[in-house]
Design brief:
This protein is an alpha/beta fold. Helix content is about 60%, strand content about 10%. It folds into three domains: about 5-85, SRP54, nucleotide-binding domain (Four Helix Bundle (Hemerythrin (Met), subunit A), Up-down Bundle), CATH 1.20.120; about 95-280, P-loop containing nucleotide triphosphate hydrolases (Rossmann fold); about 305-440, Signal recognition particle, SRP54 subunit, M-domain (434 Repressor (Amino-terminal Domain), Orthogonal Bundle), CATH 1.10.260.30. Bound molecules: guanosine-5'-diphosphate and magnesium ion. Magnesium ion (MG) binds near residues 134, 186 and 189. It is found in: Cytoplasm. Its main location: cytoplasm.
Amino acid sequence: LTDKLSRLVKNLSGQARITESNVTDMLREVRMALLEADVALPVVRDFIARVKDKALGQEVIGSLKPGQALVGIVNKELAATMGQGVSDINLAVQPPAVILMAGLQGAGKTTTTAKLAKHLIEKRKKKVLTVSGDVYRPAAIEQLKTVTAQAGAEWFPSSADQKPIDIARAAIDYARKHHFDVLLVDTAGRLAIDEALMAEIKALHAELKPVETLFVVDAMQGQDAANTARAFGDALPLTGIVLTKLDGDSRGGAALSVRQITGVPIKFAGTSEKIDGLEVFDAERHAGRVLGMGDIVALVEQVTAGVDIEAAQKLAAKVKSGGGFDLNDFLAQIQQMKQMGGLSSLMDKLPSQLTAKAGAMDMGKVEKDIGRKQGIIHSMTPQERKKPELIKATRKRRIAAGAGVQVQDVNRMLKEFEQMQDMMKKMSGGGMMKMMKRMGA
Ligand code: GDP
Ligand code: MG
């Protein structure tokens, strides 16, 4: 979070109990972080009030520091708000179990219909039929046909000249006759909340009596997700939410808003355009993402203890401005990691989507030969550090001799540097740089 928050956390370390005033200060920062993650304002207010209630007067136990305890409370409450545990699709009815998909146009209903079909076939061993009620866009019916085939499910034909309600009746008839376990009903998109279309999906709901009515919502929709969720929640007895496009770089604050507003669990998360890009929603993991990082406090403390914030900020700015990541930066990184008590321990504290990317690097090894790498870089000329591409065979031999290592060690270091450079490029848009900036800003 912000430098202010990290200072507050640090200042709290000596105290044994969380007091009203330090809670207020810290919660102001948490509030900012949530708003920045696009959580709707009324939802943020409610949330902060609940956390404040829980935090005040709470005894801080054992070795935990008050700052950590408070952030722990925030994290726990975030996860609880977004739903605890996991909840799969409910199929406890006389087959065919009907699942109705609702949501705005482009939210990902058709894609998710096919993903769910695949999930139900593979994980639940069900016989699945899909049908499209999107009679306004013939292309949408074709789209469902295509993705249904990818899922290995059966598709029930429908066409633009039919009424959605007739399609629904025919499909459910067919599903019954042919002993399908599940019928997934994709519906027409709405660009915005539209009375006629709302009436239509309500009628579909009344006819189909679905066991699951899933509200599909785009995580990138940010603040708007709250209004959409309210409209759909008022029109339909929703049973669950699918939050799509979590592979984008939004912080996913929409999860908090839609969960709170509809009161129904977020069952799945869409994580890619592909047919297998569906995950069971994990509220705890998502809480870390909404706040912007994993174990914030531990990270903040490690960072404030060992790292030159200014250097980190400079690096973030440089990479962001397209300035590139050279061996000088690599050296600075290596030295910072040493101060922070090891790369692997730092990596444990980053949000999981970042560690997944970093996972390509072997942390243990990076840590072990930090000293050797420093030596190698020290044996380079300033020009070589700025332009590593200059380092060809002759220079490598000279550098290796200077550092007292083998040429292959120089090669290995350069390779790791390239990996790091690559990672920096990938993260420069969001993730790590944002986090560093937030901590430093
Ligand atoms: P619908 O109008 O609600 O049926 O939305 P679609 O299923 O047609 O999806 C709209 C667009 O979003 C398509 O380009 C999909 O490929 C894309 N999409 C859907 N879900 C995801 C997701 O989880 N991640 C990503 N990256 N794209 C998605
Ligand atoms: Mg569609």
